[in-house]
Design brief:
It is built from 15 helices and 17 strands. It is of the alpha/beta class. Strands 9-8-7-3-2-1-11-10 form an eight-stranded parallel beta sheet. The protein binds 1-deoxynojirimycin.
Length: 554
């Protein structure tokens, strides 16, 4: 599908960069990052020729929080945790980012608050409190146990008994994350006002947490057993044993999405992004039947169950393209704070470089995760240092701490993240003395410079940020080739997923020149029908316009 570039919104043309604020830059010397640290690093991200060159940052939660789930347990939707700064710092962050033409996306956690939120404190105080119905309270089952069989994502039952009022409350994450009752219209209005609070302060968009969970079955019926549950699940993994039939993807969610979208539409050019796992046919519905729900349901298809297989990756792109209605804009996420690091998941730096080229040359909005631009791997966390509730409850091999470690700025103490002598909240990678921004900035072929070059190239190339996508069949099953085009401008992307070199025969070959290789050591002419690619090499070829262009199907 071709999209005339002048009609593209910033969130279609642009590239999003996720910042986990605890781990970006610590300016107070307490081992934890803060908003001032993000301000201090804005020049790294945008606004000059040697900046990374992203267009928007999404900042994971910085709200006041007891940190039972590291900020995804919000104690006040309209403030900043003192740990991270205050509202004045946030306002300065918005102004400084906007001065660099960088958009600000923040997290919104509508499904659950913290148990320390004043709404929940009131709600749990008595059965007849006015806010009782703001959360999901139920009497015990006949045997005194939880009202139904639902499990928490983080282990154990999804219900906690509250002695004072003799009822259970629902939480599908830790007990400190009670779930708001989205069937109550007063709750909905209060939550929509929290969106307006930040939209009025100038935020350009929200990433909305677990929006597929908002509405629950009205009768809270038991979920059926999952016949495919892994036999290796821990005894407390009740969630993994059930199919999420009555707690996820309820049709009523769409009514909520439309209401939420209407709040965004009260403002100009704001972007609604939703965190949404799940099957493609459910996922695609969250764009709305008329494009009136999310602008971008996050597409995580490369993060779950995806192996390093060119055909599988191509299929994930092609089925997505085929499933999208005309008004829907694709997007791809390569890493986030909940999954193994890209370099670890796909096997190493060479693969991570190829994945970067893929992400930044497909049709749709890319989202990068801080540190992936350095090729940061998962960090081994010693058992006594594990902090993530998922790791603490479901086994340390499931801890998400591995991908949340401090950003590595230079070769000095604590990689320049925290001052010397401070214990950072999570350890650094073992190779931080060489894997950091300062070292990689000075190395013309580093991963960081690959990202910079790719981002600059994408920004300057309408065929890449706005053009059509056409996959091309090639004989080599471990290669993936596609054409991106708008009008006369054509770019052929060829990716070799194999650990050996490959010689591709390009259908309807012609001539063109390599603009960029993942190894950053190759530019120049390619002629004829063949294209040599080294192990894990990916290239962007500028196809000569005209009928005989390389890869042209005309
Ligand atoms: C999804 C977030 O990405 C994750 O980090 C969090 O633990 C859960 N939602 C609960 O809010």
């Amino acid at each position: 599908m071709n999209s005339p570039q002048q009609e593209l919104h910033w969130w279609q043309r642009g590239v999003v960069y996720q910042i986990y604020p605890r781990s970006f830059d610590d300016t107070t010397g307490n081992g934890v990052g803060d908003l001032e640290g993000i301000i201090a690093q804005l020049d790294y991200l945008a606004g000059s020729d040697d900046a990374l060159g992203v267009d928007a940052i999404w900042i994971s939660p910085f709200y006041p929080s007891p940190m039972a789930d590291f900020g995804y347990d919000v104690a006040d939707y309209c403030d900043v945790a003192p740990l991270f700064g205050d509202l004045a710092t946030f306002d300065r962050l918005v102004a400084e980012a906007h001065a660099r033409e960088l958009k600000i996306i923040i997290d919104w956690v509508p499904n659950h608050s913290s148990d320390q939120h004043r709404w929940f404190v009131e709600s749990r105080s008595s059965r007849d409190n006015l806010k009782r119905d703001w959360y999901i309270w139920r009497d015990p089952a006949l045997d005194g146990g939880p009202p139904n069989n639902w499990g928490s994502f983080f282990g154990g039952p999804a219900w906690t008994f509250d002695e004072r009022t003799g009822q259970y409350y629902l939480h599908q994450f830790v007990p400190g994350q009670p779930e708001l009752n989205w069937r109550n219209s007063t709750v909905r209005e209060a939550m929509y006002d929290t969106l307006r609070f930040w939209l009025d302060r100038g935020v350009d968009g929200f990433r909305m947490d677990v929006i597929g969970l908002l509405m629950k079955d009205e009768e809270l019926r038991d979920n059926p057993p999952n016949p495919d549950a892994s036999p290796h699940l821990l005894a407390n993994d009740l969630f993994g044993r059930l199919l999420s039939v009555h707690n996820m993807f309820l049709p009523e969610n769409h009514e909520r999405m439309r209401e939420i979208r209407q709040v965004f539409d009260e403002y100009d050019e704001r972007c609604a992004i939703g965190e949404l796992w799940g099957p493609l046919d459910e996922w695609v519905k969250y764009y709305g039947a008329e494009g009136d729900e999310l602008h971008l349901p996050f597409n995580f298809r490369w993060m779950d169950g995806m192996t390093w297989d060119s055909q599988q990756i191509r299929a994930s792109v092609d089925t997505l393209e085929a499933a999208l209605p005309d008004f829907a804009w694709p997007n791809y996420v390569l890493g986030n704070h909940d999954r193994a690091r890209l370099a670890t998941r796909f096997g190493g730096e060479a693969q991570a470089r190829l994945a970067a080229l893929l992400l930044l040359t497909l049709r749709g909005t890319p989202t990068l995760y801080y540190g992936d631009e350095l090729g940061m791997p998962n960090v081994d966390i010693p058992p006594e240092k594990v902090q993530d509730p998922q790791g603490l409850n479901l086994g340390i091999e499931r801890t998400r701490d591995v991908c949340r470690t401090p950003m590595q700025w230079d070769s000095g103490a604590n990689a320049g993240f925290s001052p010397a002598g401070v214990e950072t909240w999570l350890p650094l990678t073992a190779d931080y003395a060489t894997r950091n921004v300062a070292v990689q900035a000075a190395d013309p072929t580093s991963v960081l410079n690959l990202y910079r070059r790719l981002l600059a190239y994408r920004r300057a190339t309408p065929a890449l940020y706005g053009g059509s996508y056409t996959p091309l069949d090639v004989e080599q099953q471990d290669c993936y080739v596609y054409l991106r085009a708008t009008g006369e401008e054509k770019r052929l992307i060829a990716l070799n997923f194999s650990a050996e070199s490959r010689t591709l025969t390009i259908p309807a070959g012609g001539s063109g020149s390599v603009a960029l290789s993942t190894y950053l050591d190759r530019e120049g002419a390619v002629a004829g029908e063949t294209l040599e690619l080294r192990a894990y090499e990916g290239v962007i070829v500028e196809v000569e316009s005209g009928e005989q262009g390389l890869g042209s199907r005309d």
